[in-house]
Specification:
This protein has about 325 residues and is α+β, with helices and mostly antiparallel strands. It is built from nine helices and seven strands.
Length: about 325
C-alpha cells in the first residue's frame, strides 16, 4: 500500500511539472508571445499556485493527505519545475533565483487550497480546473492594462581612509580588476558577470567611459558631470540587444524590454584630511508589469553591485594613500 502511495506522489510531482512547463512554453510560441507574458503578475502568482494544486490533486487520488503532505508535495513539485526550466534552457539561474521565493510560497498555497477542498468539500475537480485556467485567462486580461513604468534610485556609501584626490583618480579609468578586490557578491555567485576594467577616451563632460565585464558585456557611460575631486556623473548608453544573451537572461537584460539603468555617478565628501565618504548612485527604470517585486529585486541587485565596486575603490584608494 505504501509503495502505491509513493507512486501516486510521484505521479503528482510529474503532473505539476508538466503543467508548469506547458504554461512556460506558451510565450515561446510567436503568435502567443504578446498574449502571455512571463514578466507578469499572472505568471508570477497564478502559475505556481496551479502547479502546487495539480500536484497535490493527483497525489491525493488514493487517500486524503495531511496539510504537511500538501506542503511537501507542492513545494517539491515547484523545485523540480524550476530545475526543469534551467535544464531545458527556458530560464537562467539568475531568473530562477529571482522568482524562487514567490514561486515556492505560491505553490504551497495552491497545494493547501486544493488539499483543503479535497478533504472537506466535494468540489475539488471544479476548483482544480479553475486554478489551472487562471494563468491562461488572467494573462490576456493583464496585457490589456497599461504598463506603469517607474524610475527608481539606489544609493550606497562607504568610508575610505584616503584623500578625495586619491579616490577620484581611481574612478574614471579602472584597470585589471581582480576577483579578490570585489569581495563576495551573491549576484556574481549565481552567475551575473563581474567587471573587468573601465577606460576613458578623454576627460571632462562629454568624455565616454567604456566598462567591460565578463561574458562579453560592454557598455558606455557618457560623462555629464566632471567636478574633480568631488563628482563624476554619467549617463548610460546600453542599446537594446547589445548585451550578449549568454551573459544575462532576456528577462533581466539591461537595456532590454523590462529593465535598464539610466544614469549614475560618484560623489565624494571630505570628512578629514585623510578620510572621505564615497557615494555611488544609480538611477534605473522598471518597464515591467511587476513594479513592486521588480523594484525590490532591482534595488537588491544594484546594491550588491554597488558594494563590490565601492569595495574595489576603497581598496585601491587606501593602498595609494599608504
Amino acid at each position: 500500500m505504501r509503495s502505491l502511495l509513493k507512486k501516486q506522489y510521484l505521479f503528482g510531482l510529474v503532473a505539476g511539472v508538466i503543467y508548469g512547463l506547458l504554461i512556460r512554453l506558451i510565450p515561446e510560441i510567436q503568435k502567443l508571445s504578446g498574449v502571455f507574458e512571463i514578466i507578469s503578475f499572472s505568471f508570477l502568482i497564478f502559475t505556481p499556485i496551479a502547479v502546487g494544486a495539480v500536484s497535490v490533486y493527483v497525489a491525493s487520488k488514493k487517500e486524503k493527505l495531511t496539510w504537511k503532505k500538501h506542503i511537501s508535495i507542492s513545494s517539491i513539485a515547484m523545485l523540480v519545475f524550476l530545475l526543469s526550466m534551467f535544464i531545458f534552457l527556458l530560464e537562467g539561474m539568475v531568473c530562477i533565483v529571482l522568482i524562487l521565493p514567490v514561486f515556492m510560497v505560491a505553490s504551497m498555497i495552491g497545494g493547501l487550497i486544493i488539499g483543503y477542498i479535497i478533504n472537506y468539500t466535494k468540489h475539488s475537480k471544479s476548483t482544480l480546473n479553475s486554478l489551472l485556467l487562471l494563468p491562461l485567462l488572467m494573462s490576456p486580461v493583464e496585457n490589456l492594462l497599461p504598463i506603469q513604468q517607474s524610475t527608481q534610485q539606489i544609493t550606497t556609501r562607504i568610508i575610505i581612509d584616503a584623500s578625495a584626490q586619491n579616490i577620484f583618480s581611481e574612478l574614471a579609468t579602472v584597470k585589471g580588476i581582480k576577483n579578490e578586490e570585489l569581495g563576495f557578491s551573491f549576484m556574481h555567485f549565481i552567475g551575473l558577470p563581474k567587471p573587468l576594467e573601465a577606460s576613458m577616451n578623454g576627460h571632462g563632460v562629454g568624455a565616454v567611459r567604456t566598462s567591460k565585464w565578463e561574458k562579453g558585456v560592454s557598455f558606455e557611460e557618457k560623462i555629464t558631470v566632471w567636478n574633480a575631486p568631488y563628482q563624476l556623473h554619467y549617463k548610460f548608453n546600453i542599446p537594446k540587444g547589445s548585451i550578449p544573451r549568454e551573459a544575462l537572461d532576456r528577462h533581466v537584460e539591461l537595456g532590454g524590454d523590462y529593465f535598464t539603468v539610466v544614469s549614475g555617478g560618484y560623489d565624494i565628501k571630505i570628512l578629514s584630511d585623510n578620510k572621505s565618504e564615497l557615494t555611488l548612485t544609480t538611477l534605473f527604470k522598471n518597464k515591467s508589469r511587476l513594479q513592486l517585486y521588480g523594484n525590490l529585486w532591482a534595488k537588491y541587485v544594484l546594491s550588491d553591485f554597488h558594494y563590490s565596486l565601492l569595495k574595489l575603490m576603497k581598496g585601491r584608494a587606501e593602498k595609494k594613500s599608504t
